[in-house]
User: Fold these one by one.
Assistant:
Number 1:
Amino acid sequence: QSALTQPRSVSGSLGQSVTISCTGTNSDVGGYDYVSWYQQHPGKVPQLLIYDVNKRPSGVPARFSGSKFGNTASLTISGLQAEDEVDYYCCSYAGRFTLIFGGGTRLTVL
Amino acid sequence: QITLTESGPTLVKPTETLTLTCTFSGFSLSTGGVGVGWIRQPPGKALEWLAIVYWDNDKGYSPSLQSRLTITKDTPKNQVVLTMTNMDSVDTATYFCAHRGGTSGSWQSPTFDYWGQGILVTVSS
């Protein structure tokens, strides 16, 4: 069970949009609508951004959105802000009580 | 208010067994849908899910580490314990425990909405 595949880095300009992909298999991402996304500032605890593919917990801005097509989930951040320049991780249910994280993506805001 | 705190040794020797305790408050592990998971993060590297225990005592383990991991819960004490045998230098990491539940009603959902601050465990002789 390898980690879900995320790009190591993505970049976008201030105010623009960026999408981070998370590719798995039909045994995890493609098999269940249970994908979460986490944001992690350096040296800090991960924070939940998106759950169940496209739901936002209370307090998370609407400019963060999630989607899924086939074996690939995506996190889209619109209206990029300087403070968005941190790490992002996806996580999926993988059956039989197991979970799997992605390898993480570092976002650079230009 | 939900809080979780990890405790245990910060230095272990190779081949030793690591025992970490997650002590929590603000929720009960007897409530349907609730789980407590362990996730680790080596310095400068990605998050890695290790194990989870659910309210009904169902458990899940990372397939690659399953032979080395044991997770147990003590509901009255509000604690979850993770043991990892045969520690090696590659197991040096910050170990987090996290609460799953509430935000998503589906127990399968990896919705860790509250996390402990983590404990850095170094494996070295």
Note: The mean pLDDT of chain A is 97.
Number 2:
Amino acid sequence: GIQVEQSPPDLILQEGANSTLRCNFSDSVNNLQWFHQNPWGQLINLFYIPSGTKQNGRLSATTVATERYSLLYISSSQTTDSGVYFCAVIRGSTLGRLYFGRGTQLTVWP
Amino acid sequence: KAGVTQTPRYLIKTRGQQVTLSCSPISGHRSVSWYQQTPGQGLQFLFEYFSETQRNKGNFPGRFSGRQFSNSRSEMNVSTLELGDSAHYLCASSTQGTANTEAFFGQGTRLTVV
């Protein structure tokens, strides 16, 4: 199967700082999603981004499918941004299956 | 529009028992997939159902099974529970389960096997 690697595994920031999370994948994919896992364990959708750049408030994401990576930018971090961020990819040949990275654990201190 | 609903939220079972978890997808979504999350293995794919048919299956033993009903609700069953089955089980729904459809997750079921 496809390998998805996320970096860094852990990130500690002070409130107000900016950060960049990276997701590399080992083969061509048809789509990519970014999630934030909240304290109750639910995966919250952040971006659905097969290519290009999208922005949503303080968050933005860029996927360069030809180079097999995606970036998630968080600006002006807040304590509520803390949690685990996952990227997941999907291939057209494997219906209904997301391949997940191991996640980036983000901790934002006040 | 209601999100993906999983029940129960928490469950404690004894080794050797069996358990059934339920997932109700977003209205109109026909694809339901299941994932197991553990600290050691991360998020691993169990299986995916579309229109009551299993289309894809991960690398789990036969003790893990599932089904989907005509209303797209899905159940996952684990028989002869082992301590290592303790995990957070998440289900996701999407309209078609294809590459161009976005997946949405429920809150999950935390299963503890003692």
Note: The radius of gyration of chain A is 13 Å.
